[in-house]
User: Fold this.
Amino acid sequence: NLGYANNFVLSANFHGGTEVVNYPWDTWAHLHPDDIWWQYISHFYADTCQANSPTNYMNGFNDGITNGYDWYRITGGRQDFFTYFCFGREVTIEISDTKLLSPSLLPAHWNYNRKSFIKYMENTLHGIRGVVTDTVGTSLKAKITVLNHDTDSSFIYSDSRTGNFYRMIYAGTYNLKFTSPGH
Assistant:
């Protein structure tokens, strides 16, 4: 699994079958600790699609977004696996009411989603970010926990090669805890 070997911060998987941005959790009825952030970035994706597509595109559900469990429960889905076990953040983006689009329709759907996808990736630049090193400047892999906030494996890790970390979170004031074995 690439999620274990690399420090992916944000990802998405794409499907057809409906038009919606589906965010965690799919598995549990309780909300992810970052539910407000998930709704924000999901709406941002859907709203940008709506501005760059026909008027009826990606406007169902809650104006183009849904919490996975509220839509239908899945156990063992990719977005929950990646978010819970790989400490990244992932959504499922359903790009078409048609399960398998005709190849001739792919360019139009790319144009509907292109700006949204770029803006989605830009989310890694927002929130809390930095570099974790030891006292002599060597990069460290550290567990980064938002105190009185993180539950259900929502903490993150800094990259072991660079020490970089990106903790996307809704605007606010937070206290962080950094832990690394031997430090």
Observations:
- Strands lie at 10-15, 18-23, 65-67, 89-96, 128-131, 143-146, 156-157, 164-167, 176-179.
- The mean pLDDT is 94.
